[in-house]
Design goal:
Layout lengths: L9 H26 L1 H8 L3 H17 L1 H11 L1 H19 L5 H15 L2 H12 L5 H30 L1 H14 L1 H10 L16 H5 L2 H31 L4 H31 L4 H25 L2 H30 L4 H12 L1 H16 L5 H21 L16
């Protein structure tokens, strides 16, 4: 007999589907600048350092607003906070199509970061509150498909459209389409409002200071930082690297990126579904999750070196291998925190973890651009820095992270 734990209710599938779509939209919109990079450089005259700073600007407000966004999801309700965020980032994307200067792009990228900051705290809060623990792996794998396939779709479709109509109409179109997601989301939120978790912090919820004292938070944050450093470097510089250094056209670059990000997204779904299956038959969540997380960083070291040192075909093979193993690790990035923190603290836990993990989004594009410029356009040193950062990921997920099991928040809690 199939239990409720083994088969999500229709409302759970609706939630997973809507979150998958919004995460895909999120990564399409934040990745558009990288796809348009060669065209924007030509029109507005940016060098790699200026472009890296513009790419990093998004992550400045994205990081600074992450903890407030996590707190807000628990205080005012994840449904509402997510809807407001989508409206802000959709408008920022749309207005980018009208810019005439680097300063305007900078301001809109900062606004985009504010809008996108609630997406992971809110989605994690909703999953932890509405799904049992042995379904979190699959749910995270499916929604990871959204944010991992987002760059594939955005880069491929964006490159095709930009080659025909230029980059400005594409930003306007994608921003307008992002607003459309709010229509089914508001209908879903109204139908499920009666069953939504209480918006205010409830009795028994740990304090933010209590969350900060957890070893698991710091292990997950360090691993998250390392994984994101790789990811954001590739997301920012892959189009420039393939076009400027490997001699590809915009369409060839778009095809390569589509298959790379597509493999990534398929790996995330497979890992999530198999993780849940193994947990249901009694396998240790700690062993399963740590294996995927650590293996990703080991493979990434070899893949990053191969991408920049080997001939074109072997370089692309390394890119595809990196994307597959990154996908296999993706369900654990947020699934681990959802299991450890539980419904009472997931919004703030993921807000803190994602804040620290996404500091790499500020550092990686900016430092990558500097290393490339300092070395006369040679990408080897920038790829070498990425290899070194992976060591932090191995240490965070493999050593600092404790057992992957729910934390008893009543332990050492002050008397009321």
């Amino acid at each position: 007999m199939t239990t409720a734990s083994q088969r999500p209710a229709p409302s759970q599938w609706q939630l997973i589907t809507l979150l998958t779509v919004v995460l895909m939209i999120s990564y399409v919109d934040r990745g558009n600048l990288a796809t348009a990079g060669p065209l924007i450089q030509k029109e507005l005259g940016f060098d790699e350092v200026q472009f890296g700073k513009l790419a990093s600007a998004f992550y400045l407000t994205y990081v600074l607003m992450m903890f407030p966004a996590g707190w807000a999801t628990e205080r005012f309700g994840a449904h509402r906070v997510l809807a407001v965020g989508v409206a802000i980032w959709a408008l920022a994307t749309l207005l980018t199509g009208f810019v005439a200067s680097a300063a305007t792009i900078l301001l809109l990228r900062l606004l985009l970061g504010v809008g996108e900051s609630p997406v992971f705290p809110a989605s994690s809060n909703l999953l932890a509150a509405n799904l049992p623990r042995d379904r979190l792996g699959g749910a995270n794998g499916i929604i990871s498909f959204g944010y991992l396939v987002g760059p594939a779709i955005g880069t491929w479709v964006g490159a095709m459209l930009m080659s025909s109509v230029g980059w400005r109409p594409v930003f306007i179109l994608f921003g307008a389409l992002s607003l459309v997601w709010l229509l089914p989301w508001m209908r879903y939120a109204r139908r499920t409002a009666a069953n939504a978790p209480p918006p205010a912090l409830v009795e028994g919820a740990p304090s933010s200071w209590r969350i900060l004292k957890e070893r698991g938070l710091w292990g997950a944050a360090l691993g998250h930082f390392s994984s994101n450093y790789n990811w954001y470097f590739i997301l920012t510089f892959l189009p420039l690297y393939l076009v400027n250094k490997r001699g590809m056209s915009m369409i060839e670059m778009g095809n390569v990126a589509f298959w790379a990000y597509g493999l990534n997204s398929l790996g995330s779904v497979a890992a999530g579904l198999y993780t849940d299956r193994w947990i249901r038959i009694g396998r240790s969540p700690t062993v399963i999750y740590k294996f995927f997380m650590v293996t990703n960083h080991v493979v990434s070291i070899a893949a990053m070196a191969g991408m920049v040192l080997l001939p074109l075909n072997a370089s692309l093979a390394c890119l595809y291998a990196y994307q597959v193993f990154l996908g296999l690790s993706s369900p654990g990035v947020f699934g681990i925190g959802q299991i450890l923190a539980g419904p009472l603290a997931t919004g703030r836990w993921i807000g803190i973890q994602n804040c620290l993990g996404n500091m790499s989004g500020i550092i990686s594009p900016a430092l990558g651009g500097l290393l490339i410029q300092w070395n006369g356009g040679d990408y080897r040193y920038a790829f070498g820095a990425v290899c070194l950062v992976n060591v932090l990921g191995i240490f965070g997920w493999g050593v600092i992270l404790p057992k992957v099991e729910p934390i008893d928040w009543t332990r050492d809690a002050p008397a009321r």
